[in-house]
Amino acid sequence: MTKFISRFAKDESGATAIEYGLIAALIAVALIGVLTTMSGSLKATFDRISTDLTKANSAK
Predict the structure, then answer these.
(1) Distance between CA atoms of 35 and 18, rounded to whole angstroms?
(2) pLDDT, average across residues 19-45
(3) What are phi and psi of 38, to 5 degrees?
């Protein structure tokens, strides 16, 4: 039983997966923060594009 516990304590194979999960979570949080901060600017840009496309379609 002690061999199993010591082997389990030394096993680092799952550590890499956990590290990648933490990195992905950090990137997701950063993206959410950036997009939330820029949401007004992004909305204005997409509204302008939508208006321009509508004008271009109606001019035909």
Answers:
(1) 26
(2) 93
(3) -95, 10
